């Protein structure tokens, strides 16, 4: 953890499943959320729904593996739940909320 010391006290390590961890974060308190956990449709959907409320107005909801051939569940969840998202390099999707 010494590599992260420079970010203290803003950094908090939460070792829980992603949806459970979201419950520990205040709504409207984050500038950016990056989703790259469970790559099933249900897992990605649940992460988006759990973490989107944690963003401040103008914050970024982002994630990895928008790759139809390998992760169709991620693609379906993002298509359904993240209007206006854009694709960046390395299969990264992002939307300003």
Describe the structure.
The chain is built from three helices and four strands; from the N terminus they run αβαβαββ. The protein has about 100 residues and is an alpha+beta fold. It has a single domain (about 20-95), classed as Vaccinia Virus protein VP39 (Rossmann fold, 3-Layer(aba) Sandwich). Strands 1-2-4-3 form a four-stranded mixed beta sheet, covered by helices on one side. The radius of gyration is 14 Å and the shape is globular. The chain starts with 17 loop residues before the first helix and ends with a strand. The model has no long low-confidence stretch (mean pLDDT about 95).
Q: Please identify the oligomeric state.
A: single chain
> Which whole number gives the mean pLDDT?
93
DSSP helix count?
Answer: 3
Number of DSSP strand runs? 4
How can the largest sheet be summarized? 4 strands, mixed
Secondary-structure element string: HEHEHEE
CATH architecture name: 3-Layer(aba) Sandwich
State which percent range the strand residues make up.
Answer: 15-25%
Task: Return the structural class.
Answer: alpha+beta
CATH topology type:
Rossmann fold
Ends distance: 31 Å
Main sheet strand line-up = 1-2-4-3
CA radius of gyration is 14 Å
CATH superfamily: Vaccinia Virus protein VP39
CATH top level is Alpha Beta
**How many domains in all?**
1
- Which segments are poorly predicted (pLDDT under 50) over 5 or more consecutive residues? none
Overall spatial form: globular
Summary tags:
97 residues; Rossmann fold; 3 helices; 22% strand
In brief:
With 97 residues, the chain is an alpha+beta fold.
